[in-house]
């Protein structure tokens, strides 16, 4: 849609109320036993299993893809009465796309690529657009772009909208996730406004963080972004997905995020087409909890070393 500046500038965020609401969530939402196992299995299907390290190798990416294809040991799945599941996607840097596409062939698991000068997003604009094109050509079905934080910090909503529109167009058929890098946006009000602008410009998902900022996904930021998604849906009828990313490594945190989605947006947003975790180490903890549910014992972390 066209940029609606009145809507953007009218978006507010009451920080103390948001923090209070987020703080009460862990006490109010406690899921136990079989229900917990079910929520954790759902969480797995929503993970963008991620490796974004300077020392990534083809071998590491192939191992990660093997994990994405079979994220939970077969004996645990059997004990839980589940058929095979997979993660939502595998998320890598551009140079690893072809390896991941090859390793995931025939599974239907999409490859997501971080792009546009990730994580800072400060490379020349034409190069950022070209990078998207190269990643789509290499087989990425999802592109995680980073926005220019300075456009938010200076309130230049038109520049942010134009940038996001150009990224959206460069993605073609690929889905585009807009990484706001919320830890660098200064205020929750800025987070609300940037969320709206990116949705107006065509983002399929809005995502909190690159995982490289000093503050990454948090519950207060999530509440603001999720409410912006709800507002956008109420006014336009268009569903935009949500991806908290960075620092989510515990199964109990995953359940909290799912509970927040269910409370604020309902069950429709608890599926991988509208919800993802960006996480490199969450899966290992979820597997430990599932093993505990099945056997009554906690396994050592190294038994689930990858993911
Ligand atoms: O988008 C995904 C993040 O980079 C993953 O962050 P993490 O390594 O803290 O889980």
UniProtKB/TrEMBL annotation:
InterPro entries: Aldolase_TIM, DeoC, DeoC/FbaB/LacD_aldolase
MF GO annotations: deoxyribose-phosphate aldolase activity
Regions annotated as coiled coil: none
Example GO biological process: carbohydrate catabolic process
Pathway(s): Carbohydrate degradation; 2-deoxy-D-ribose 1-phosphate degradation; D-glyceraldehyde 3-phosphate and acetaldehyde from 2-deoxy-alpha-D-ribose 1-phosphate: step 2/2
EC number(s) stated in the UniProt entry for this protein: 4.1.2.4
A GO-annotated cellular component: cytoplasm
Superkingdom of the source species: Bacteria
Catalytic activity entry: 2-deoxy-D-ribose 5-phosphate = D-glyceraldehyde 3-phosphate + acetaldehyde
Keyword annotations: Lyase, Schiff base
Pfam families, per database record: DeoC (PF01791)
Family classification: Belongs to the DeoC/FbaB aldolase family. DeoC type 2 subfamily.
Protein name (database record): Deoxyribose-phosphate aldolase
Gene: deoC
């Amino acid at each position: 849609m066209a940029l609606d500046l009145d809507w953007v500038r009218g978006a507010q965020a009451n920080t103390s109320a948001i923090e209070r609401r987020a703080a009460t969530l862990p006490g109010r939402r406690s899921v136990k036993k079989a229900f917990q196992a079910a929520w954790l299995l759902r969480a797995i299907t929503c993970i963008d299993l991620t490796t974004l390290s300077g020392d990534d190798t083809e071998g590491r990416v192939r191992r990660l893809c093997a994990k994405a294809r079979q994220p939970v040991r077969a004996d645990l799945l059997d004990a839980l009465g589940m058929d095979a599941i997979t993660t939502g996607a595998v998320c890598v840097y551009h140079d690893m796309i072809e390896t991941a596409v090859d390793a995931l062939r025939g599974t239907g698991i999409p490859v997501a690529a971080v792009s546009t000068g990730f994580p800072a997003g400060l490379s020349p604009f034409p190069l950022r657009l070209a990078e998207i094109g190269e990643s789509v050509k290499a087989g990425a079905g999802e592109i995680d772009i980073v926005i220019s934080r300075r456009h938010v910090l200076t309130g230049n909503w038109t520049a942010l909208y134009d940038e996001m529109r150009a990224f959206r167009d460069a993605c073609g058929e690929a889905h585009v996730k807009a990484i706001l890098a919320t830890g660098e946006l200064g205020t929750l009000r800025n987070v609300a406004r940037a969320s709206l602008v990116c949705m107006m410009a065509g983002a399929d998902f809005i995502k909190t963080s690159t995982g490289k900022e000093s503050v990454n996904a948090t519950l207060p930021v999530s509440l603001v972004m999720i409410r912006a998604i709800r507002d956008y849906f109420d006014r336009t009828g268009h569903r935009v997905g949500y991806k908290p990313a960075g620092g989510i490594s515990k199964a109990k945190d995953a359940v909290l995020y799912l509970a927040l989605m269910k409370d604020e947006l309902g069950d429709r947003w608890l599926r991988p087409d509208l919800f993802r975790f960006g996480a490199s180490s969450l899966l290992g903890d979820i597997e430990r909890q599932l093993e505990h549910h099945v056997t009554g014992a906690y396994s050592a972390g190294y038994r689930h070393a990858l993911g």
